[in-house]
Amino acid sequence: MKNKIKIGIITLCFAVIMILSFLLIKNDRETTSIDKVNLIETPSKTLRNGDKEDIVVVVNDKEIRQLDVNYRLLINQNIKQKYEDTDLAIDYEGVKDEIINQEILLQEAKKNNVDIDETEKKLIKETYTNAMSETDRQIAQEIGMTEEEFLQYAIEKQTENRIAEKMREKIIRSIVKGEIKLEDDNFNKKMQEVQETLNYNLLQETYEIYISYLKENSNINYIK
Question: CATH code at 65?
Fold first, then answer.
């Protein structure tokens, strides 16, 4: 019974963190001021040259485009500028790796029928269609999109972010409950320790091992 209560508390904490993150993004879009919209001093210097439709990497037949990397790079840099303690990648290769990890989570979500509900999808759509911030316009210009194209793309990406987060939460719960079976002694040992200690840092480490396992068993083709 005590373990079930602890598992519930950890799951609740993760859910609260995810909800607060989304509300922060929503609030930031609604309260943007001139002082807060400076994207980065020289955004064009951070972008990789090439057509936005160029394929950068393929993850199990899913093509990741130049546009996808450049968009996330600018978003991460903007967030990092406002919230310095974030661990988001702000370099090209780091961002590309983040996208690969997220795509793997999205593919796992599809396999496991994990999705967000229609209410949340509607909230995301309303958040991005009610107003286009100056930062949004800057990013759209830098990656070569019209405002309409950018809004549709941003809605798609934020929806994917939330689905990936939900899949991550599912994996976390499965680790805490000891439900994942791998032929990996290190992972199995750490998962057992997580069940015994419910240590957050150990849980995070065990999660990373599992993601690495999924990557190793994926077909990832780096093109550029």
Answer: 1.10.4030
* The pLDDT of residue 4: 55
Residues of the chain with pLDDT under 70: 1-50
Q: What's the domain count of the chain?
A: 1
**Domain span at 160:** 2-222
DSSP type of residue 217: T
Name the E strands within the chain: 55-59, 62-65, 220-222
Spatial distance between the Cα atoms of 194 and 206, rounded to a whole number of angstroms: 8
* 200 touches 35 (CB < 8 A): no
User: What are φ and ψ of residue 221, in 5° steps?
Assistant: -115, 105
Report the relative pairing of strands 220-222 and 62-65 from DSSP bridges: unpaired
Q: What's the pLDDT at 12? A: 52
Give dist(CA 2, CA 9) in Å, integer: 11
Element (H, E) at 62: strand 62-65
pTM of the model: 0.79
Integer Cα distance of 107 and 97 in angstroms: 15
| H helix count then E strand count, the chain | 8, 3
DSSP assignments along 147-176, one per residue? HHHHHHHHHHHHHHHHHHHHHHHHHHHHHH
The torsion of the CA quartet 156, 151, 32, 90, rounded to 10 degrees, works out to: 50
- Distance, in Å, from the CA atom of 164 to the CA atom of 104, rounded to the nearest integer, reads 9
The residue length of the chain stands at: 224
